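Let's sit down with a protein and look at its sequence and fold side by side. Please make up or recall a protein chain and show it to me in full. Label the sequence line and the structure token line clearly, so we can match residues to local backbone shapes. Go ahead whenever you are ready, and we will take it from there.
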Amino acid sequence: MMDKAISLAPDVERYTAEIKALVGRTAQHVVRIGEKLQAVKAQLPYGQWEAWLRQEFHWSASSAVKMIQVYERFKSVNITDVHLDVSTLYVLAAPSTPQEATEEALALAQQGEVVSLGRAKALVNKHRGTQTLASSRAPTLHLLPDAPPLTNGQRPPFNQTNEIVDWAKWTWNPVTGCARTKPGNPARPGGMPV
């Protein structure tokens, strides 16, 4: 954001206003494109819609589906004067996005606030009840005590690691539960294959 003390030339101010108007129209155009894509999809025979998309626009089906989702989510909302970029619209229109997140983002945008892609994702996570890595505190890690001493000549189920596994203090070998002398156990020395 620019400091208010900086005076802009009249042309820059005019271009700024025009760009903001175009961004608002871009959002509205995505809604209209989604509406028309949905209509075409309904008219084409099954299986021909994706070929039509590739032939006419060089679009993937997933890109077109995102625009249809924008249409379905925002068809009854006037987003002409709302400054949301296309990526933000896609996140807010996704089927997994809670309606409350979309409503809050629209309310913020209608108040003149910029709802960036990152802010839209944070709103979605907030309304889903999930935390992002940036908003969460790291959990407290409790260290395990050293392995217990051998009891009755038995090895503990966990092994202290060495330099081969330097990212963990303990490892577990599921094979240690097998009897060494069991015939037909190829995992053990002396075991014969089945």
